[in-house]
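> call design_seq(struct)
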């Protein structure tokens, strides 16, 4: 009869089977993705290219009431496909001849008139960009300008990309949009940079009036589109590319990572200073209670520190932070950072005191009696005999308290402290992305906690060696 396998070997076999299964699944996903990505694409016909370009241009007007863009895209622009050439991977260069209104010249010549209509609309009480847009569309002179705009012809290279689904996507670059839709991308950029207009021969500042600019822009109106090359990669590669783009947008672009770096520095500074304050308060509070328990001295101090510990342990740290800053310190002009340090120091001190007191009280009474028999007084006995033994007992609990303190500082942003959490929220407010900034904050906290746990583990091993 065969002996059953030891539990350790069974666990090892199971672990290796799970690893093999994960590798097999990952290999299958990668192979399927590679096969999908290498599907041979077919060049579009002239009819397909014509339809793709026309549909892309028709999708650009921002609203149905964006009369200018709609008129240009659907009625005025004429496109003739000359030839189609194979470009880079899944890319086709479509050479086109076009005829469309010269909106760029028209806009430059009549810019003041269009902005004057928009300005007069706001003087009539309208503060809505859509109302300005409609006023321009209904304005007989404005619409006549568009309808009477001179035509211009030219040639352009339009890039189409084949997707894995067999469709084609037009690259809506600014150059392509301007070429086929009448310079509307360039016009939009000029409108966005306009801070002063001429009305009745006088210059009027609209630097702080975004409504006028949006209304005029919507009259020429194109929808927001991405100037980047269309992503025709496989689903897995698209997901990887999306993650790369999201990472760049949240951390690299405009140096957003600096918010996290600054917040991390403030978080570590608050934690370190609050830790020192908490240790001092904890030791003093613990000793006062121990002296009273063992000698019945310091009665009133014992009552005070008991009230302090009960109050701190019985209320949430965020409520303590709000009371300490807004009620006690803000009226006397104390800044946010020292208020956060004081709050977390007081909070930590209450928990540290109970940890230390519990550790000291756990030491056998015989140790104290042995010290007394050697001629030590109360304090020398505590310092040389009891506290060294208690330190080894309370070290794991103190480590947990320090880790909790590090994580609790994340609520400091409620009073405006630029800590790590606030850094992530600031990035989120600028990029409108929830996942990446908050995940980065969580990972940073996780790494800090792992590092602190590792250091404490090293210290515990050294203490065990010293015992031997």
């Amino acid at each position: 009869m065969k002996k059953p396998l030891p539990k350790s070997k069974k666990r090892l076999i199971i672990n290796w089977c799970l690893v093999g299964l994960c590798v097999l699944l990952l290999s299958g996903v990668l192979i399927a993705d590679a096969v999908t990505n290498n599907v041979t694409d077919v060049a579009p016909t002239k009819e397909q290219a014509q339809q793709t370009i026309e549909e892309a241009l028709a999708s650009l007007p921002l609203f149905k009431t964006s009369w200018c863009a709609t008129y240009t895209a659907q009625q005025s622009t004429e496109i003739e496909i000359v030839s189609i050439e194979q470009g880079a991977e899944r890319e086709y260069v479509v050479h086109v001849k076009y005829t469309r209104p010269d909106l760029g010249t028209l806009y430059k010549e009549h810019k003041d008139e269009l902005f004057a209509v928009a300005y007069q609309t706001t003087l009539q009480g309208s503060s809505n960009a859509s109302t300005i847009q409609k006023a321009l569309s209904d304005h007989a002179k404005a619409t006549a300008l568009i309808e009477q705009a001179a035509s211009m012809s030219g040639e352009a290279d339009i890039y189409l990309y084949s997707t894995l689904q067999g469709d084609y996507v037009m690259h809506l670059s600014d150059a392509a949009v301007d070429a086929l839709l009448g310079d509307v991308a360039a016009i939009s950029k000029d409108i966005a940079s306009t801070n002063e207009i001429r009305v009745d021969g006088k210059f009027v500042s609209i630097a702080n009036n975004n409504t006028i600019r949006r209304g005029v822009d919507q009259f020429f109106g194109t929808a927001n589109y991405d100037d980047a090359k269309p992503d025709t990669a496989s689903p897995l590669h698209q997901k990887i590319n999306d993650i790369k783009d999201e990472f760049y947008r949240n951390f690299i672009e405009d140096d957003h990572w600096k918010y996290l770096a600054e917040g991390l520095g403030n978080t570590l500074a608050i934690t370190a200073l609050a830790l020192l304050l908490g240790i001092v308060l904890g030791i003093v509070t613990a000793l006062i209670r121990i002296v009273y328990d063992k000698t019945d001295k310091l009665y009133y101090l014992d009552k005070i520190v008991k009230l302090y510990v009960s109050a701190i342990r019985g209320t949430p740290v965020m409520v303590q932070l709000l009371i300490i800053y807004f009620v006690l310190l803000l009226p006397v002009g104390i800044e946010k950072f020292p208020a956060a340090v004081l709050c977390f120091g007081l909070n930590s001190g209450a928990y540290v005191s109970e940890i230390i007191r519990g550790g000291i009280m756990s030491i056998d009474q015989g140790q104290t009696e042995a010290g007394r028999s050697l001629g030590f007084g109360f304090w020398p006995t505590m310092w040389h005999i009891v506290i060294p033994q208690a330190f080894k007992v309370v070290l794991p609990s103190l480590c947990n308290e320090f880790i909790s303190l590090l994580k609790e500082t994340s609520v400091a942003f409620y009073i405006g402290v630029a800590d790590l959490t606030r850094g992530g929220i600031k990035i989120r407010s600028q990029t409108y992305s929830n996942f990446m900034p908050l995940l980065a904050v969580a990972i940073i906290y996780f790494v800090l906690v792992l590092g602190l746990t590792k250091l404490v583990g090293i210290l515990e091993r050294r203490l065990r060696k010293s015992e031997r």
